[in-house]
Amino acid sequence: MILDKSLLDQHNSQGNALHQKKYGLLASVLQDEGHNVNTILERLAAFQVAIPSWALGTGGTRFGRFAGGGEPRSLEEKIEDVGLLHALNQSSGAISLHIPWDIPQNPKAIQQLAASFELKFDAVNSNTFQDQENQDYSYKFGSLSHTDKAVRDQAIAHNVEVIRHGVELGSKSLTIWLSDGTDFPGQQNFRRSFARTLDSFEQIYAQLPADWKVFIEYKPYEPHFYSTVVADWGSSLLFCQKLGEKALGLVDLGHHLPNTNIEQIVSRFLMEGKLGGFHFNDSKYGDDDLTVGAMRPYQLFLIFNELVDGMTSSEIKNPELSWMIDASHNIKDPLEDLMQSVEAIMIAYAQALIINRPALEKAQLQNDATLAQEILQNAYRTDVRPLLAEARFKAGAALNPVGFYREQKIRKELIKQRGEKTYSTGL
Ligand code: LRH
Ligand code: MN
Ligand code: MN
């Protein structure tokens, strides 16, 4: 579906008076506090979050799935959906593919289609956590860590194939989430599983093009419930350090045990120049994959505090980061949910940008915990949404993306075009 620009302009002119009131007030307060509002707006405009190709349909759970209607039926339609999101917020200028859920049959045409919506391809994701039809060996007992070399070779070949697809699309990174692990104590030897995995990773690493990176994503449990080979940031970092400079850690917010201090993990990765990127989502219990910011917006802000600190510090030498969403939608309209996720990420980023850093550093040096908290929470409790709206307005996006999407009844239109019961590939 191609967006009619004049409808966007109409939406923006209707909302502009109220927006200017809110924005003017915030901008003048920030200016008085010593911030350069234009620089903040530029940073927000430059910030792009990749949309996962597997989150454009209703995911459901293992207990059931309730189709939302009008879901994309092909990779082309997924790209159109991301194009629509990007037109609405100008902050979703990339898509991350999961292979083989989304195999680009005609990569040239796919790339052209994406380019027509000004979309780039972020990391390509491999999948050795499911068996595919016509596959020689099963991954029931693992893939890159498997005891049988033939299974490992098959999983390595798949990753190399994913790199090939990525190269054809102009992607520059591979994300490996390795689900391999065990369900019962004694089932495997931890040390040998690690060694076999390292050997497999090394073979994949050797096939990376010169300007590529590989992201090693960690997760403590699920699908396996006793041990996982790449269970935590320590294991991820260990693999990355052994592999070389193209290997970087990937932090999926849902992949931590309850109450883990994720912001400190982010700081450690940054310190070592080993942070590759994020899978943003939110959760209350585990890997819930809920809308970003729905449960723990303060945690997200604290993560961005570390990121802004790291990105502006001359002591940190970390490659540019990949910002990606990894979410699943059980009951919401996936497009609305993704717009909310992107907004939540941008809010946390904007709030982190307005932290009074010199004052924070001074409070830290003086061990003034009260003042340090005041400084952080002053930024966190500032309603920065007018800044985001202004950045969108300037970029020709919608002042209120979800509002516009509803006003225009876009889902209804997608259902008309695609049908009530469509199923997109993915989770
Ligand atoms: C695993 C995970 C990983 C997969 C995606 C579908 O839980 O986060 O990133 O590739 O979900
Ligand atoms: Mn993930
Ligand atoms: Mn996950």
Automatic annotation (TrEMBL):
> Cross-referenced InterPro entries, in alphabetical order?
L-rhamnose_isomerase, Xyl_isomerase-like_sf
Report the GO molecular function annotations. isomerase activity; metal ion binding
Please list every transmembrane segment annotated in the UniProt record, as residue ranges. Answer: none
Q: Source organism's superkingdom?
A: Bacteria
List keywords of the entry alphabetically: Isomerase, Manganese, Metal-binding
Q: Does the keyword Transmembrane helix apply?
A: no
Q: Which PANTHER family match?
A: L-RHAMNOSE ISOMERASE (PTHR30268:SF0)
Under what name is this protein listed? L-rhamnose catabolism isomerase
Q: Which organism is it from?
A: Adhaeribacter aerolatus
